[in-house]
What we know:
This protein has three helices and six strands; from the N terminus they run βαββαβαββ. It has helices spanning 12-18, 48-65, 86-97; strands at 4-7, 22-25, 28-35, 73-80, 103-108, 119-125.
Amino acid sequence: MAERRSILSGSTFEEQIGYARAVVDGDWVQVSGTTGFHYATMTISDDVVEQAEQCLSNIEAALTEAKCTFADVVRVRYLLPDRADFEPCWPVLRRAFGQVRPAATMLVCGLADPRMKIEIEAYARRWATA
């Protein structure tokens, strides 16, 4: 039977809503939609680029716990309330995924908290080591 385990970040949202930051299911790692909250302080910047950087930091922490890196990411989904906020984030996103080039989708939609300007979810595959 394949390994299945939850990875928690300590975000109060995980407890309040009832979800995990990521789930490892065999070789696959699915990272929940992740916002720019700094989970230790539960603060969030007003700047969308800073939020994108924090999203990626939060995602990277979950991937690390799952024994993955950004290089293992096969799909990302970007969710933003304002489409104009996406392009300023491109350099940050390119630093994380420019060499990997995962499949990607950007959606314009409302987010759970009006302070949130970007949410990112990621899917990774843990490759067997030789």
